[in-house]
Amino acid sequence: MRAWAKGFGILLAVVGLALAGCSDHKTQAKKDALALIKKRGVLKVGVFSDKPPFGYVDSKGQYQGFDVYIAKRMAKDLLGDENKIQFIPVEAAARVEFLKSKKVDVIMANFTKTKEREAVVDFAKPYMKVALGVVSKDGVIKSVDDLKGKPLIVNKGTTADFYFSKNYPSISLLKYDQNTETFLALKNNRGVALAHDNTLLFAWVKKNPEFKVGIPSLGDQEVIAPAVKKGNKTLLEWLDKEIDTLIKSGFIKEAYDATLKPVYGDELDPKSVIF
């Protein structure tokens, strides 16, 4: 009986160690976002659906744009097929929450890297440069002083929203969730001007020539980069290497030529926009 009890005790210990090892393995797998994506076989990417030429849905219901072009290459390099990707539309103010709630693996929605955002998400290496700009009818707004006592249109949760709220709290802001709402408000004269990424505004005025970018650059030049959930170390490391490769191989320039150059033409030096 004593021998049996001893043997049974050893068996329980072995089973316990095995279960613990299995549990540790499962816990590690949960932490390894890269392994989960590979197991799933689909890369979930948050992009804009209404911000051409960076992220938008075309007449055939397909996602297009600069960020989309790059995201497809990421899926190809990670999973072997650019079609192994699920695009999930996001609004500017919801980008952080979509990462926190794991609705997406990566945000590629023209996401400007800021200190405030770095505190809640992890940014990979940047692939694009950006500053704020201000557009108005006939370009009548040429300086921030011209905005005093007049309503300025911005998107909620954008760098334009943060910049004016922090630096010019006396300027009245009209805030909208979607880009379509924001630019429609400008066309309907709800505000005297609209502040947004200058790269977007340079493209928008091409199709809306009655408007001009009266303030082409405001504040510091910043960068746009992919973002992941805070602490997703393996995915972040992979993205850093991927961005390095895409820049050095000339793929980012290829993406620019395919999606942005047809809009900007030869008026804009690619080196002022992309890395």
Summarize the structure.
With 275 residues, the chain is α/β, with parallel strands linked by helices.
List the helices and strands and how they pair.
Blueprint (H helix, E strand, L loop, with lengths): L1 H30 L1 H8 L2 E5 L2 E2 L3 E3 L5 E2 L1 H14 L5 E5 L5 H6 L5 E2 L7 H4 L2 E3 L4 E10 L14 E4 L3 H9 L5 E4 L2 H9 L5 E5 H10 L3 E14 L2 E3 L3 H16 L2 H9 L1 H4 L11
Parallel strand pairs: 1-5, 1-6, 9-10, 9-11
Antiparallel strand pairs: 2-3, 3-4, 7-13, 8-11, 8-12
Would you write up a description of this structure?
This protein has eleven helices and 13 strands. The chain is an alpha/beta fold and 275 residues long. It folds into two domains: 33-127 and 225-266, 3-Layer(aba) Sandwich (D-Maltodextrin-Binding Protein, domain 2), CATH 3.40.190; 130-222, Periplasmic binding protein-like II (D-Maltodextrin-Binding Protein, domain 2), CATH 3.40.190.10. It has a five-stranded mixed β-sheet, with helices on both faces. It is globular, with a radius of gyration of 23 Å.
